[in-house]
């Protein structure tokens, strides 16, 4: 490792350390006035009473502040529940909002400086480490030592990163009040873009986008000389930065709903839920356009593009989940399970999830058109459970948190209902396939090893068979790592796409087939 | 030698016959799989002392380099064998009693067979160099060799690889992946010159040097020196130069691994002699893969073929003969592939390292010097003999058809776009190649246009 790379790694680690230390810094002091501003009118009185012990108190960290708050609120809610006063229970989640306004001191006063020292310096350090990689080396496969790496082979480093990522997702989804200091960091950016304060989701979006950009640069280094990989990576970087990060904030500035124009139902599972539809249709003609755009993506774009280019047009060129998997997740792609059993589990998970979200969506729409006579408000419960189990726990915690343990496409492979939908189109009506080059396969296994979707590519290649699989996201890594030029991603005529040749090209001993 | 007359029924065909295959490499395993496809009753046993399960020998280097683990190199999951009732015996065969049809094993009970298939593979050549038995000196063929190489290179500051062929360049790449500098001793005036024409050899050598390989051409090994403890300390070349090293890789070819059957009634030469049905001189005993030597070679081919692809074809063909009807081994146009560090090599048909009239050659090299294409053909009727591709991927089916149908080099060159197998968005070179051909041979060929059928084509049609 070159000195400059060591320096970069050191800077990155220091920035990461400071970033984590931030959670324990700053002070929190909630005043009555702040409470009044931050909660619904009907809750002000109750909360002022219940939170009396902490009002005006100075807490030395968000942890003690949030712990006190949650304790007091829980006491109150439990009491109401015990006395069956259901309407008096406070369901709203005020912890994050109150921790935000209560924050003061070091972090609150030095947001810009700390943003620079943690996130910006951290990204710069990572780039210092990444940019000199493979300099002066010829283009080619760069997988030396992957299986010896503690990070990439479920060693101590890998497990530590997995636990850390998982913890971050748990905090982000269910305990955002503990990471309020991180959200404060990106306040300056949020104010610049949309004029509002940063939520935990804006923080998440910022780091997510930065991870794709920085690790995208790593892809440029690692796969230099391979135009398919370079273009594909540039594409996911572009879509993440513009469609997923900047444009939604601009829409907010324009008084439109926050909307990621490339997110497609059923991945965007709440697209048809009442509140989404209401917010789109309540935003005038531009909102109506967003609604129609979303529907066109589902019924026109998916079948059309998938027919011509295969699933890859979305999963490894456009999608945000795919974008992170293909950049930040690339070092872990070989950790996917290739066994036949895993394939069975995959099919028993991903398609049922597609069915479940379809049923939930249809029920929601039916309920909406019957003016809630059908199921009353009970679809809300379905939405919450789906959001909790699939949207948060599966897509987030397991999907990304488990990168270093189960590979970078766990969500896409086992959970994503959109991938399931596109996959069905790809399997049955598409021009896309991975062509196997006659009899040239030497069964070495590089293709299967580095397939992030856990497809046993070699199984097909060594039989001279084209690879046509619903799950293939067309990342093209199998073709890149193949040492004998056996695999090629292609769009071609449907005829002859699925092949089954009993004897491999090159052997003419056997004339009588079948 | 005359080919013995093929009989219609040259092996035992009773249901439930016991077929024993010695060797679980690509030949033996392919044969076993194809027998099972057509004969659900046969008792099939595969014996190997090397590893319990079939793995891809060609991938050994990737285990050493950390691209894969041993488990990744197994083409079939471990349940595959039991599910297909392919009985695996992990043991070494110590002797064969052809009279009693019985095999003695090192650890386990003897096994009897009705049909015996020998797929014994190869072993590295050694040419009685002084010191070749020292610790730290080895070839690379088996899984055990790989483990030994792992141990032998643990504290290695400098290594020497002897032999300018495929295993030699693989060993060199393996060692360099662990930052061990390598002196690569090549006997000929260029890398793999016994196979590659000069330009291809030069191109590969430039690439090796870019990878900091210390190439020593026209250099032969004279002796290997001891450090006093039984370990290698240096090699001496025939020119008298001493190169200090702690590891010596011997990669000067392989020979059939037939010690097991030497001095038995099985007739052997360099390999086990077989007819075109892979039948040996003993009924119901067959030999396939690296260890087989044809009594009468297939025209234009070696009598011993030690290539992954031919081993696989042997297995396919013999299985067909044993389960369906006897067919002669009849490989189609030759093909092969290799990879020299980052440069992929594919060849189709026959490209000799040297040629003379009326054979002619067209060679094109990209300005970057890492991509090349050669077509060798009959200078009179332009019929294609074969092609070499370096740094570009070529479609097997395209050239298989071109060679079987005796296309001319010009027919091939105008259609070369269809032969392209490079990843999408790669630079295309077929126009440049055709232009080079036109200049060199005074022709005026135009590339054949292929109809595009993408989404965009619907717009501007």
Automatic annotation (TrEMBL), chain A:
Coiled coil spans: none
A single GO molecular function term of this UniProt record: metal ion binding
Keyword 4Fe-4S included in the entry's annotation: yes
Q: Which SUPFAM superfamilies match?
A: 4Fe-4S ferredoxins
Annotated TM spans: 112-134, 155-175, 201-220, 241-259, 279-305, 348-370, 385-405
Q: Which InterPro entries match?
A: 4Fe4S_Fe-S-bd, 4Fe4S_Fe_S_CS, Electron_Trans/Redox
Q: Which GO terms describe its cellular component?
A: plasma membrane
List UniProt keywords, sorted A-Z: 4Fe-4S, Electron transport, Iron, Iron-sulfur, Membrane, Metal-binding, Transmembrane, Transmembrane helix, Transport
Outline the extent of the 4Fe-4S ferredoxin-type domain.
432-460, 463-492
Q: Which Pfam families match?
A: Fer4_5, Fer4_9
Q: What is this protein called?
A: 4Fe-4S binding protein
UniProtKB/TrEMBL annotation, chain B:
Q: Which Gene3D superfamilies match?
A: FAD/NAD(P)-binding domain (3.50.50.60)
**Could you cite one Gene Ontology molecular function of this protein?**
oxidoreductase activity
What cofactor does this protein call for? FAD
Tell me the keywords, alphabetical order: FAD, Flavoprotein
Query: Sorted alphabetically, which InterPro entries does this protein's record hold?
Result: FAD-bd_OxRdtase (IPR050260), FAD/NAD-bd_sf (IPR036188), FAD/NAD-binding_dom (IPR023753)
What residues does the FAD/NAD(P)-binding domain cover? 18-303
Looking up SUPFAM superfamilies in the UniProt record yields: FAD/NAD(P)-binding domain
State the superkingdom. Bacteria
What Pfam families does the entry give?
Answer: Pyr_redox_2 (PF07992)
Q: Which PANTHER family match?
A: NITRITE REDUCTASE [NAD(P)H], PYRIDINE NUCLEOTIDE-DISULFIDE OXIDOREDUCTASE DOMAIN-CONTAINING
Q: In which family does this protein belong, per the annotation?
A: Belongs to the FAD-dependent oxidoreductase family.
- The molecule here is called Pyridine nucleotide-disulfide oxidoreductase
Q: Which organism is it from?
A: Pontibacter mucosus
């Amino acid at each position: 490792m070159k000195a400059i790379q060591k320096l970069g790694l050191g800077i990155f680690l220091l920035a990461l350390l400071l970033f984590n230390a931030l959670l324990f810094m700053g002070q929190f002091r909630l005043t009555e006035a702040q409470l009044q501003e931050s909660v619904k009118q009907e809750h002000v009185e109750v909360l002022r009473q219940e939170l009396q012990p902490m009002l005006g108190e100075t807490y030395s960290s968000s942890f003690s502040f949030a712990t006190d708050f949650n304790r007091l609120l829980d006491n109150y809610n439990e009491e109401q529940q015990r006395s069956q006063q259901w309407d008096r229970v406070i369901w709203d989640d005020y912890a994050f909002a109150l921790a935000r306004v209560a924050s003061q001191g070091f972090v609150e006063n030095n947001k810009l400086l700390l943003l620079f020292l943690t996130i910006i310096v951290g990204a710069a350090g990572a780039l210092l480490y990444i940019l000199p990689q493979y300099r002066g080396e010829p283009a080619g496969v760069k997988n030396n030592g992957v299986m010896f790496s503690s990070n990439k082979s479920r060693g101590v480093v890998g497990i530590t990163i997995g636990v850390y990522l998982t913890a971050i997702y748990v905090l982000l989804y269910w305990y955002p009040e503990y990471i309020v200091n991180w959200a404060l960091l990106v306040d300056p950016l949020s104010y610049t873009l949309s004029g509002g304060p940063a939520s935990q989701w804006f923080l998440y979006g910022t780091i997510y986008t930065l991870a794709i950009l920085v690790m995208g640069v790593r892809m440029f280094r690692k796969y230099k000389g391979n135009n398919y990989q370079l273009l594909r990576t540039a594409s996911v970087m572009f879509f993440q930065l513009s469609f997923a990060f900047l444009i939604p904030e601009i829409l907010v500035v324009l008084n439109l709903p926050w909307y990621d124009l490339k997110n497609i139902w059923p991945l965007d599972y709440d697209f048809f839920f009442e509140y989404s539809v209401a917010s789109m249709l309540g935003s005038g003609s531009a909102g109506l356009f967003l609604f129609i755009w979303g529907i066109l993506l589902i019924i026109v774009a998916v079948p059309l593009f998938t027919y011509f280019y295969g699933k890859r047009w979305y999963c490894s060129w456009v999608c945000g989940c795919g974008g992170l998997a293909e950049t930040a997740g690339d070092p872990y792609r070989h950790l996917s399970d290739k066994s036949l059993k895993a394939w069975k589990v995959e099919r028993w998970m991903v398609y049922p999830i597609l069915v479940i979200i379809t049923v939930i969506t249809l029920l929601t729409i039916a309920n909406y058109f019957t003016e809630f006579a059908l199921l009353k408000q009970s679809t809300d419960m379905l939405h919450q459970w789906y959001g909790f189990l699939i949207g948060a726990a599966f897509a987030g915690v397991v999907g990304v948190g488990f990168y270093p343990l189960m590979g970078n496409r766990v969500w896409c492979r086992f959970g994503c209902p959109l991938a399931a939908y596109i996959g069905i189109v790809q399997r049955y009506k598409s021009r896309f396939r991975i062509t196997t080059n006659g009899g040239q396969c030497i069964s070495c296994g590089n293709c299967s090893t580095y397939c992030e979707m856990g497809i046993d590519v070699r199984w097909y290649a060594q039989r001279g068979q084209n690879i046509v699989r619903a799950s293939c996201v067309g990342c093209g890594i199998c073709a890149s790592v193949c040492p004998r030029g056996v695999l090629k991603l292609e769009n071609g005529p449907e005829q002859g796409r699925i092949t089954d040749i009993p004897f491999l090209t090159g052997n003419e001993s056997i004339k009588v087939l079948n | 030698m005359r080919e013995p007359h093929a009989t219609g029924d040259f092996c035992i065909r009773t249901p439930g016959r016991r077929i024993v295959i010695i060797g679980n490499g690509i030949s033996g395993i392919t044969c076993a799989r194809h027998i099972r496809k057509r004969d659900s009753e046969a008792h099939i046993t595969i014996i190997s002392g090397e590893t319990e399960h079939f793995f891809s020998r060609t991938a050994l280097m990737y285990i050493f380099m950390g691209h894969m683990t041993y488990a990744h190199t197994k083409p079939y999951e471990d349940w595959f064998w039991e599910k297909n009732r392919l009985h695996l015996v992990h043991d070494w065969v110590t002797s064969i009693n052809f009279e009693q049809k019985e095999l003695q094993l090192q650890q386990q009970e003897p096994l009897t067979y009705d049909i015996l298939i020998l797929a014994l593979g190869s072993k590295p050549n050694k040419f009685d160099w002084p010191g070749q038995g020292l610790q730290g000196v080895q070839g690379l063929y088996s899984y055990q060799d790989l483990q030994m190489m792992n141990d032998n290179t643990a504290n290695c500051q400098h290594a020497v690889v002897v032999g300018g062929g495929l295993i030699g360049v693989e060993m060199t790449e393996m060692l360099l992946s662990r930052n061990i500098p390598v002196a690569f001793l090549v006997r000929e005036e260029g890398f793999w010159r016994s196979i590659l024409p000069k330009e291809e050899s030069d191109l590969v050598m430039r690439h090796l040097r870019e990878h900091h390989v210390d190439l020593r051409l026209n250099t032969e090994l004279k002796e290997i020196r001891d450090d006093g403890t039984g370990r290698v300390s240096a090699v001496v070349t025939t020119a008298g130069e001493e190169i200090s090293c702690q590891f010596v890789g011997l990669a000067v070819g392989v020979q059939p691994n037939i010690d097991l059957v030497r001095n038995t009634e099985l007739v052997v030469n360099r390999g086990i002699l077989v007819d075109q049905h892979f039948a040996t001189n003993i009924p119901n005993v067959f030999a396939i893969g690296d260890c087989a030597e044809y009594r009468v070679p297939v025209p234009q081919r070696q009598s011993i073929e030690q290539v992954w692809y031919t081993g696989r074809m042997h297995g396919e063909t013999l299985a067909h003969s044993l389960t369906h009807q006897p067919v002669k081994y009849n490989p189609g146009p030759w093909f092969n592939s290799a990879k020299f560090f980052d440069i992929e090599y594919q060849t189709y048909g026959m490209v000799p390292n040297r040629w003379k009239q009326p054979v002619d050659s067209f060679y094109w090299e990209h300005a970057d010097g890492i991509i090349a294409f050669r077509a060798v053909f009959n200078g009179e009727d332009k019929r294609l003999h074969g092609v070499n591709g370096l740094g570009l991927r070529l479609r097997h089916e395209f050239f298989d058809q071109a060679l079987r149908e005796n296309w001319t080099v010009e027919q091939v060159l105008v259609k070369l776009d269809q032969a392209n197998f490079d990843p999408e968005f790669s630079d295309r070179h077929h126009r440049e190649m055709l232009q080079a051909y036109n200049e060199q041979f005074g022709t005026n060929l135009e590339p054949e246009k292929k109809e595009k059928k993408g989404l965009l084509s619907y717009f501007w049609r």
